[in-house]
């Protein structure tokens, strides 16, 4: 029985072992789905929401770019006001309905400091103060020591209210909830040049607000020819990707204001990303000088407050980018299938003509003839089989098509780029260049460049400013095509520019229907597309060629200035010497010991009568130096805005005639000075 009981009990563990792995298999087999909002909430770094500081920067950027697009869409000169208000912990708690509580168990908190740690910190501070006192006694420069802080836990996060107001198009009343509360829905989708990178815009800021504060977003909007203003307060149901509306109503618009104002409260970090946000606003003012920006940071501590106004410099706006059709060489199999589903054209000939660029009727007929006997111009495009669509895609990849034009693109323009650089950097000299439209993978692109030398708040060496579809790129600069071109492919010495000592600003703006960003953050353009790399190098070189001629003229002017300074330095000595000679000759003439010609006699009489003195002689010599330095005067006039040469006759002595030598001791020389 004992043996039997043991044998009966032995298989039980095996059964138990066989059952345990089956349970997780049943769980893994459950099919789950995620909404787009939930996906971006879990992968927020894709949209640039990596950490609280980056979240604050990206929120400002998304709201500003939406405001610019809105104003430009109605050809209105943009006026954008951005305000970041710091919210203290107690104020935030009152906003969400919490009562402040004092700590009961200090050791429970992340920033708790033990007695030993406090002793070490105090000893370190005392030592630092002692060294500071010794340095002060020796007269050395002393740095101000900041008060040490304990570790900052998640409970001590900083919160900010970000407000962005514009004078743009506004939003239709009924569309506001979906425009802000439904991810991957918007008006910017389509094949055209857009500022947005993902089509998320303020939706991602709302998701971050939902995750960090739980507070809703507030939108006020009014369109032209409306007698009311729309107000909406909402947040987002992340799991269902739907707006959760708190308030959605029409209000009276007394001031007849047109535009949009968005207000959102998020967790952020102003201290670490202050410079990035201000650099972004400054670079946006460079690339859009026709816009007016007002930036404010408001804090409880008045010394932290910041107010910067970037004034408008011009009222010339670039054209609105147009939506275009796909180029045959840039499509893939899925896109062709989607276009077939969405097209309103009935037969294959019309489909090829009207859904793609650079395919005329005759060329479409040639393409259909090349596809094979199964295709005909009149066949229904909806009846195409999967194999036939694959054949069309293969032919598109192999056939030759004209490059698309750049008419659908909207570059900033040389005029605006130059004005923006001058307005914000105040350089000593600047050159700009705008290239013609070029193509990569069937997508048109235009490269604009500007190079400046000198300026305000510009560091020595290369200062690189990158723009893609007229928005600044501030991160991941090292691998960007613009950075690599400026550092490795341009020989600055050939253009009389010192790469290490001069203050050089390199501005490159690339616009396209498809910007080939690299990485999930879409913060830089790769260096592996030869068409773009070549265009960037050519544009920068064209600017450098312009600058070289200016620099050479400046060097010549400096040399002429030095020559003039050297001549002027000897005027007093020359004046004394010449006057002494004239005085001696006048005395000889007066005593009739020596006779001179009529002209000489006249000069000597003026010397005797003291009509010619050392002072008048010094003045005439100075005028003579000015007159001799004609080239420098012409350069000065050119800088002053004179485009044509002075209408003064210039006489050049013939080489054939025998040169005349003027005796400096002769009064004739002095006489000519006074003519």
UniProtKB/TrEMBL annotation:
Residues 404-563 form the DNA topoisomerase VI subunit B transducer domain. GO terms for molecular function: ATP binding; DNA binding; DNA topoisomerase type II (double strand cut, ATP-hydrolyzing) activity; identical protein binding. Its main location: nucleus. Residues 16-25 have a biased composition (Basic residues). ATP binds at residues 66, 166, 187-188, 196-203, 522. Residues 1-36 are annotated as: Disordered. The keyword Coiled coil does not apply. It catalyses: ATP-dependent breakage, passage and rejoining of double-stranded DNA. It is found in: Nucleus. Residues 1-10 have a biased composition (Low complexity). InterPro entries: HATPase_C_sf, Ribosomal_Su5_D2-typ_SF, Ribosomal_uS13-like_H2TH, Ribsml_uS5_D2-typ_fold_subgr, TopoVI_B, TopoVI_B_transducer. GO terms for biological process: DNA topological change. Keywords: ATP-binding, DNA-binding, Isomerase, Nucleotide-binding, Nucleus, Topoisomerase. Its EC number is 5.6.2.2. GO terms for cellular component: DNA topoisomerase type II (double strand cut, ATP-hydrolyzing) complex; nucleus. Transmembrane segments: none annotated. Pfam families: HATPase_c_3, Topo-VIb_trans. Belongs to the TOP6B family. Component of the DNA topoisomerase VI involved in chromatin organization and progression of endoreduplication cycles. Relaxes both positive and negative superturns and exhibits a strong decatenase activity. The B subunit binds ATP. Homodimer. Heterotetramer of two TOP6A and two TOP6B subunits. This is DNA topoisomerase 6 subunit B.
